[in-house]
Amino acid sequence: MKIAIHNRPDSYSEEWIDYCKKNNVDFKIVNCYDSDIVAQLNDCDGLMWHWPHWDFKAAHFARQLTYSLESNGKKVFPDSRTCWHYDDKVGQKYLFEAMDIPCVPTYTFYDKKEALAWCDKTDFPKVFKLRKGASSMNVKLVRRKSEARRLVRKAFGKGFPVVDRFSLFKDRIWKIRRDKDLKSVIGFFKGLARLLVPTELEKFMPDQKGYVYFQDFIPDNHYDTRVMVIGDCATGLKRMVRENDFRASGSGSFTFNPDEIDIEKVKIAFEVAAKLKTQSLAFDFVSHNNKPLIVEISYASIIDHNNPGYWDKDLKWHYAEFFEERYMIENFIQSLTANQMQLCSK
Questions:
Q1: In CATH, which superfamily holds the domain spanning 223-325?
Q2: Domain-by-domain residue ranges, the chain?
Q3: 265-272: long-range contacts, CB 8 A cutoff, minimum separation 24
Q4: What is the fold of 103-216?
Q5: pLDDT string in tens for the chain (346-residue length)
Protein backbone atom coordinates (compact mmCIF):
# COMPACT_ATOMS: atom_id res chain seq x y z
CA MET A 1 0.00 0.00 0.00
CA LYS A 2 1.33 3.41 -1.00
CA ILE A 3 -0.14 6.86 -0.41
CA ALA A 4 0.46 9.95 -2.52
CA ILE A 5 0.42 13.25 -0.61
CA HIS A 6 0.35 16.73 -2.08
CA ASN A 7 2.48 18.76 0.30
CA ARG A 8 1.34 22.31 1.05
CA PRO A 9 2.72 24.46 3.89
CA ASP A 10 0.31 25.21 6.75
CA SER A 11 -2.05 22.44 5.73
CA TYR A 12 -3.06 18.96 6.89
CA SER A 13 -0.29 17.51 4.74
CA GLU A 14 2.44 18.37 7.25
CA GLU A 15 0.90 16.07 9.85
CA TRP A 16 0.08 13.40 7.24
CA ILE A 17 3.71 13.24 6.16
CA ASP A 18 4.91 13.15 9.76
CA TYR A 19 2.47 10.31 10.51
CA CYS A 20 3.74 8.26 7.56
CA LYS A 21 7.35 8.70 8.62
CA LYS A 22 6.68 7.74 12.24
CA ASN A 23 4.53 4.73 11.36
CA ASN A 24 6.52 3.41 8.38
CA VAL A 25 3.71 4.04 5.92
CA ASP A 26 4.90 3.99 2.32
CA PHE A 27 4.21 7.36 0.72
CA LYS A 28 5.45 9.75 -1.95
CA ILE A 29 5.15 13.50 -2.44
CA VAL A 30 3.31 14.52 -5.61
CA ASN A 31 2.30 17.80 -7.20
CA CYS A 32 -1.37 17.84 -8.11
CA TYR A 33 -0.86 20.90 -10.31
CA ASP A 34 1.47 19.02 -12.67
CA SER A 35 -0.02 18.03 -16.01
CA ASP A 36 1.14 14.45 -15.48
CA ILE A 37 -0.38 14.04 -12.03
CA VAL A 38 -2.35 10.95 -13.10
CA ALA A 39 0.88 9.29 -14.21
CA GLN A 40 2.55 10.28 -10.93
CA LEU A 41 -0.12 8.25 -9.13
CA ASN A 42 0.35 5.04 -11.13
CA ASP A 43 2.23 3.30 -8.30
CA CYS A 44 -0.07 4.65 -5.55
CA ASP A 45 -3.30 3.34 -4.08
CA GLY A 46 -4.63 6.68 -2.95
CA LEU A 47 -4.13 10.45 -2.94
CA MET A 48 -4.44 12.90 -0.02
CA TRP A 49 -4.68 16.58 -0.94
CA HIS A 50 -5.83 19.36 1.39
CA TRP A 51 -6.89 22.00 -1.11
CA PRO A 52 -8.28 25.26 0.31
CA HIS A 53 -11.28 27.30 -0.79
CA TRP A 54 -9.11 30.28 -1.71
CA ASP A 55 -6.94 28.33 -4.19
CA PHE A 56 -8.24 29.49 -7.57
CA LYS A 57 -6.09 26.87 -9.31
CA ALA A 58 -7.63 24.01 -7.36
CA ALA A 59 -11.09 25.41 -8.04
CA HIS A 60 -10.50 24.71 -11.74
CA PHE A 61 -9.83 20.99 -11.44
CA ALA A 62 -9.71 19.48 -7.93
CA ARG A 63 -13.21 18.00 -8.07
CA GLN A 64 -12.69 16.73 -11.61
CA LEU A 65 -9.37 15.10 -10.74
CA THR A 66 -10.93 13.49 -7.68
CA TYR A 67 -13.83 11.99 -9.63
CA SER A 68 -11.54 10.79 -12.40
CA LEU A 69 -9.22 8.99 -9.98
CA GLU A 70 -12.18 7.40 -8.19
CA SER A 71 -13.49 6.19 -11.54
CA ASN A 72 -10.21 4.32 -11.95
CA GLY A 73 -10.51 2.68 -8.53
CA LYS A 74 -8.20 4.92 -6.52
CA LYS A 75 -9.09 6.31 -3.12
CA VAL A 76 -8.88 10.07 -2.60
CA PHE A 77 -9.07 12.36 0.41
CA PRO A 78 -11.26 14.33 0.24
CA ASP A 79 -13.38 12.09 -1.96
CA SER A 80 -16.22 13.32 -4.16
CA ARG A 81 -18.92 12.85 -1.53
CA THR A 82 -16.84 14.87 0.91
CA CYS A 83 -15.77 17.78 -1.27
CA TRP A 84 -18.19 18.44 -4.13
CA HIS A 85 -20.16 20.92 -2.01
CA TYR A 86 -17.06 22.56 -0.49
CA ASP A 87 -17.22 26.38 -0.60
CA ASP A 88 -20.49 26.16 -2.53
CA LYS A 89 -23.38 27.45 -0.45
CA VAL A 90 -25.78 27.10 -3.37
CA GLY A 91 -24.90 23.43 -3.77
CA GLN A 92 -25.32 22.91 -0.04
CA LYS A 93 -28.83 24.40 -0.14
CA TYR A 94 -30.01 21.75 -2.58
CA LEU A 95 -28.16 18.98 -0.74
CA PHE A 96 -29.76 19.88 2.60
CA GLU A 97 -33.22 20.05 1.08
CA ALA A 98 -32.89 16.83 -0.93
CA MET A 99 -31.56 14.87 2.05
CA ASP A 100 -34.00 16.41 4.55
CA ILE A 101 -31.21 17.84 6.67
CA PRO A 102 -32.16 20.42 9.35
CA CYS A 103 -30.87 23.73 8.01
CA VAL A 104 -31.50 27.45 7.95
CA PRO A 105 -34.09 28.18 5.21
CA THR A 106 -32.35 29.48 2.08
CA TYR A 107 -33.60 31.14 -1.11
CA THR A 108 -31.81 31.26 -4.47
CA PHE A 109 -32.91 32.98 -7.65
CA TYR A 110 -31.54 32.96 -11.19
CA ASP A 111 -33.94 35.50 -12.63
CA LYS A 112 -33.89 39.17 -11.71
CA LYS A 113 -37.66 39.71 -11.91
CA GLU A 114 -38.38 36.68 -9.72
CA ALA A 115 -35.81 37.83 -7.17
CA LEU A 116 -37.23 41.35 -7.01
CA ALA A 117 -40.77 40.00 -6.65
CA TRP A 118 -39.62 37.84 -3.74
CA CYS A 119 -38.00 40.90 -2.11
CA ASP A 120 -41.35 42.70 -2.27
CA LYS A 121 -43.23 39.99 -0.37
CA THR A 122 -40.70 38.49 2.05
CA ASP A 123 -39.96 39.68 5.57
CA PHE A 124 -36.68 41.12 6.81
CA PRO A 125 -33.97 40.97 7.98
CA LYS A 126 -32.37 38.37 5.72
CA VAL A 127 -28.74 37.33 5.35
CA PHE A 128 -27.15 37.84 1.93
CA LYS A 129 -24.25 35.62 0.88
CA LEU A 130 -22.25 34.69 -2.16
CA ARG A 131 -21.87 31.00 -2.89
CA LYS A 132 -18.11 31.27 -2.20
CA GLY A 133 -16.17 32.64 0.77
CA ALA A 134 -15.26 31.78 4.38
CA SER A 135 -14.65 33.55 7.71
CA SER A 136 -17.82 35.60 7.15
CA MET A 137 -16.51 37.10 3.92
CA ASN A 138 -19.27 38.14 1.50
CA VAL A 139 -21.91 37.90 4.26
CA LYS A 140 -24.23 40.85 4.91
CA LEU A 141 -27.27 41.43 7.08
CA VAL A 142 -30.03 42.92 4.93
CA ARG A 143 -32.48 44.85 7.09
CA ARG A 144 -34.78 46.43 4.50
CA LYS A 145 -36.43 45.64 1.19
CA SER A 146 -34.57 48.49 -0.50
CA GLU A 147 -31.21 46.95 0.46
CA ALA A 148 -32.26 43.56 -0.87
CA ARG A 149 -33.43 45.04 -4.17
CA ARG A 150 -30.13 46.88 -4.55
CA LEU A 151 -28.21 43.64 -4.04
CA VAL A 152 -30.42 41.85 -6.55
CA ARG A 153 -29.82 44.51 -9.18
CA LYS A 154 -26.08 44.27 -8.61
CA ALA A 155 -26.18 40.45 -8.73
CA PHE A 156 -27.79 40.62 -12.16
CA GLY A 157 -25.64 43.53 -13.25
CA LYS A 158 -21.92 43.95 -12.72
CA GLY A 159 -21.88 41.32 -9.97
CA PHE A 160 -19.70 40.97 -6.88
CA PRO A 161 -15.96 40.35 -6.65
CA VAL A 162 -15.18 37.09 -4.90
CA VAL A 163 -13.03 39.05 -2.43
CA ASP A 164 -14.53 42.10 -0.72
CA ARG A 165 -11.35 44.07 0.00
CA PHE A 166 -13.10 46.82 1.93
CA SER A 167 -14.83 44.36 4.26
CA LEU A 168 -11.56 42.53 4.83
CA PHE A 169 -9.89 45.84 5.70
CA LYS A 170 -12.63 46.59 8.23
CA ASP A 171 -11.96 43.16 9.74
CA ARG A 172 -8.30 44.12 10.13
CA ILE A 173 -9.32 47.26 12.03
CA TRP A 174 -11.65 45.18 14.22
CA LYS A 175 -8.83 42.75 15.03
CA ILE A 176 -6.55 45.60 16.12
CA ARG A 177 -9.23 46.78 18.55
CA ARG A 178 -9.76 43.22 19.78
CA ASP A 179 -6.19 41.93 20.04
CA LYS A 180 -4.09 45.10 20.46
CA ASP A 181 -0.90 43.24 19.51
CA LEU A 182 1.87 43.42 16.91
CA LYS A 183 0.36 40.68 14.75
CA SER A 184 -2.90 42.61 14.33
CA VAL A 185 -0.97 45.82 13.51
CA ILE A 186 1.01 43.99 10.82
CA GLY A 187 -2.27 42.58 9.52
CA PHE A 188 -3.68 46.08 9.33
CA PHE A 189 -0.87 47.28 7.08
CA LYS A 190 -1.20 44.17 4.91
CA GLY A 191 -4.90 44.93 4.59
CA LEU A 192 -4.07 48.52 3.67
CA ALA A 193 -1.83 47.26 0.88
CA ARG A 194 -4.57 44.87 -0.29
CA LEU A 195 -6.89 47.83 -0.83
CA LEU A 196 -4.56 48.87 -3.62
CA VAL A 197 -3.06 45.59 -4.86
CA PRO A 198 -5.43 42.73 -5.73
CA THR A 199 -4.55 39.15 -4.83
CA GLU A 200 -4.21 36.37 -7.39
CA LEU A 201 -7.58 35.08 -6.24
CA GLU A 202 -9.19 38.38 -7.23
CA LYS A 203 -7.37 38.46 -10.56
CA PHE A 204 -8.33 34.98 -11.69
CA MET A 205 -11.67 34.16 -10.06
CA PRO A 206 -14.64 35.58 -11.97
CA ASP A 207 -17.09 37.98 -10.39
CA GLN A 208 -20.15 36.36 -8.87
CA LYS A 209 -23.22 37.24 -10.92
CA GLY A 210 -26.34 35.76 -12.46
CA TYR A 211 -27.77 34.46 -9.20
CA VAL A 212 -28.70 35.75 -5.76
CA TYR A 213 -28.69 33.90 -2.43
CA PHE A 214 -30.45 34.81 0.81
CA GLN A 215 -30.85 32.97 4.13
CA ASP A 216 -33.30 33.55 6.93
CA PHE A 217 -31.78 35.52 9.77
CA ILE A 218 -31.95 33.48 12.98
CA PRO A 219 -32.04 35.98 15.88
CA ASP A 220 -30.85 35.65 19.48
CA ASN A 221 -27.76 33.58 18.69
CA HIS A 222 -24.83 34.97 20.63
CA TYR A 223 -22.59 32.20 19.31
CA ASP A 224 -22.54 29.42 16.76
CA THR A 225 -21.26 25.88 17.21
CA ARG A 226 -18.81 24.14 14.94
CA VAL A 227 -18.77 20.34 15.06
CA MET A 228 -16.30 18.36 12.95
CA VAL A 229 -16.90 14.67 12.29
CA ILE A 230 -14.00 12.52 11.12
CA GLY A 231 -14.90 8.86 10.86
CA ASP A 232 -16.19 7.73 14.27
CA CYS A 233 -14.93 10.81 16.13
CA ALA A 234 -16.23 14.35 16.52
CA THR A 235 -14.81 17.54 17.97
CA GLY A 236 -16.54 20.81 18.71
CA LEU A 237 -16.12 24.43 19.65
CA LYS A 238 -18.37 27.34 20.46
CA ARG A 239 -17.61 30.56 18.54
CA MET A 240 -18.81 33.83 20.01
CA VAL A 241 -20.47 36.42 17.80
CA ARG A 242 -18.41 39.52 17.09
CA GLU A 243 -19.17 42.62 19.12
CA ASN A 244 -21.94 44.71 17.53
CA ASP A 245 -22.28 42.13 14.76
CA PHE A 246 -24.27 38.99 13.97
CA ARG A 247 -21.40 36.86 12.61
CA ALA A 248 -19.40 34.33 14.60
CA SER A 249 -17.13 32.89 11.90
CA GLY A 250 -13.78 34.62 12.00
CA SER A 251 -14.42 36.24 15.38
CA GLY A 252 -11.39 34.60 17.01
CA SER A 253 -13.35 34.25 20.25
CA PHE A 254 -14.19 30.63 21.06
CA THR A 255 -14.08 27.84 23.62
CA PHE A 256 -13.41 24.10 23.30
CA ASN A 257 -15.10 23.26 26.62
CA PRO A 258 -17.23 20.16 25.83
CA ASP A 259 -19.68 21.07 28.60
CA GLU A 260 -20.65 24.16 26.60
CA ILE A 261 -21.38 22.24 23.39
CA ASP A 262 -24.98 21.17 22.78
CA ILE A 263 -24.75 17.38 22.51
CA GLU A 264 -27.80 17.36 20.20
CA LYS A 265 -25.71 19.21 17.62
CA VAL A 266 -23.00 16.56 17.90
CA LYS A 267 -25.65 13.86 17.44
CA ILE A 268 -27.04 15.54 14.32
CA ALA A 269 -23.53 16.02 12.91
CA PHE A 270 -22.83 12.27 13.25
CA GLU A 271 -26.17 11.42 11.63
CA VAL A 272 -25.71 13.78 8.69
CA ALA A 273 -22.09 12.72 8.08
CA ALA A 274 -23.26 9.09 7.99
CA LYS A 275 -26.13 9.95 5.65
CA LEU A 276 -23.80 11.82 3.27
CA LYS A 277 -21.05 9.16 3.62
CA THR A 278 -18.32 11.75 4.07
CA GLN A 279 -14.76 11.23 5.31
CA SER A 280 -14.52 14.56 7.12
CA LEU A 281 -17.15 17.22 7.60
CA ALA A 282 -17.35 20.41 9.67
CA PHE A 283 -20.82 21.75 10.53
CA ASP A 284 -21.74 25.29 11.57
CA PHE A 285 -24.85 25.28 13.77
CA VAL A 286 -27.17 27.95 15.15
CA SER A 287 -30.33 27.39 17.19
CA HIS A 288 -33.93 28.44 16.59
CA ASN A 289 -36.48 27.76 19.34
CA ASN A 290 -33.92 25.36 20.86
CA LYS A 291 -33.75 23.43 17.58
CA PRO A 292 -30.28 23.04 15.99
CA LEU A 293 -30.05 24.24 12.39
CA ILE A 294 -27.09 23.82 10.05
CA VAL A 295 -25.87 26.99 8.37
CA GLU A 296 -23.01 25.60 6.27
CA ILE A 297 -20.68 22.62 5.94
CA SER A 298 -17.05 22.21 4.92
CA TYR A 299 -14.72 19.24 4.59
CA ALA A 300 -11.86 21.20 6.18
CA SER A 301 -11.50 23.47 9.18
CA ILE A 302 -8.84 25.73 10.64
CA ILE A 303 -6.06 23.62 12.16
CA ASP A 304 -6.08 23.97 15.94
CA HIS A 305 -4.57 21.39 18.28
CA ASN A 306 -6.02 22.89 21.46
CA ASN A 307 -9.08 20.67 21.50
CA PRO A 308 -9.05 18.64 24.76
CA GLY A 309 -10.64 15.53 23.28
CA TYR A 310 -13.45 14.06 21.19
CA TRP A 311 -16.85 12.36 21.22
CA ASP A 312 -17.25 8.82 19.91
CA LYS A 313 -20.31 7.69 17.92
CA ASP A 314 -22.09 6.82 21.17
CA LEU A 315 -21.69 10.50 22.17
CA LYS A 316 -19.28 9.58 24.96
CA TRP A 317 -16.62 12.21 25.61
CA HIS A 318 -12.94 11.22 25.76
CA TYR A 319 -10.26 13.52 27.13
CA ALA A 320 -7.33 12.80 24.83
CA GLU A 321 -4.91 14.49 22.46
CA PHE A 322 -6.78 15.08 19.24
CA PHE A 323 -5.14 16.00 15.94
CA GLU A 324 -7.72 16.08 13.14
CA GLU A 325 -5.07 15.30 10.53
CA ARG A 326 -4.05 12.06 12.26
CA TYR A 327 -7.62 10.77 12.34
CA MET A 328 -7.97 11.64 8.67
CA ILE A 329 -4.95 9.64 7.59
CA GLU A 330 -5.72 6.74 9.93
CA ASN A 331 -9.23 6.46 8.51
CA PHE A 332 -7.86 6.81 4.99
CA ILE A 333 -5.39 3.96 5.54
CA GLN A 334 -8.24 1.82 6.88
CA SER A 335 -10.27 2.52 3.74
CA LEU A 336 -7.29 1.56 1.55
CA THR A 337 -6.85 -1.69 3.45
CA ALA A 338 -10.54 -2.50 3.10
CA ASN A 339 -10.40 -1.68 -0.60
CA GLN A 340 -7.43 -4.00 -1.13
CA MET A 341 -9.19 -6.83 0.71
CA GLN A 342 -12.24 -6.42 -1.53
CA LEU A 343 -10.06 -6.56 -4.64
CA CYS A 344 -8.29 -9.68 -3.40
CA SER A 345 -11.58 -11.44 -2.68
CA LYS A 346 -12.81 -11.00 -6.26
A1: ATP-grasp fold, B domain (3.30.470.20)
A2: 103-216, 223-325
A3: 265/225, 265/227, 265/236, 265/292, 266/227, 266/234, 266/236, 266/311, 266/315, 267/315, 268/102, 268/292, 268/294, 269/227, 269/228, 269/229, 269/234, 270/229, 270/234, 270/313, 270/315, 272/99, 272/101
A4: Dna Ligase; domain 1 (3.30.1490)
A5: 999 999 999 899 999 999 999 999 999 999 999 999 999 999 999 999 999 988 989 999 999 999 999 999 999 999 999 999 999 999 999 999 999 999 999 999 999 999 999 999 999 999 999 998 765 567 899 999 999 999 999 999 999 988 766 666 566 655 666 666 666 666 655 656 565 666 666 777 788 999 999 999 999 888 899 999 999 999 999 988 866 666 655 556 778 899 999 999 999 999 999 999 999 999 999 999 999 999 999 999 877 778 899 999 999 999 998 889 999 999 999 999 887 766 566 5
Question: Rounded CA gap, 156 and 136, in Å?
Answer: 22
Distance in angstroms (rounded) separating the CA atoms of residues 194 and 226:
29
Render the burial of 281-320: b for 16+ CB within 10 Å, e for the rest: bbbbbbbeeeebbbbbbbbbbeeeeebeebbeeeeebeee
Residue-wise pLDDT for 305-346, tens only, equals 788 999 999 999 999 988 899 999 999 999 998 877 665 665
Query: Is it true that 103-216 and 223-325 share their CATH fold?
Result: no
Q: In residues, how long is the chain? A: 346
> pLDDT value at position 244?
61
Question: Residue 143: what residue type?
Answer: R
Which 3 state secondary structure label does DSSP give 3?
strand
Sign of CA dihedral 110, 114, 119, 121: negative
Instruction: Pick the closest to residue 261 from 237, 228, 286 (CA basis).
Output: 237
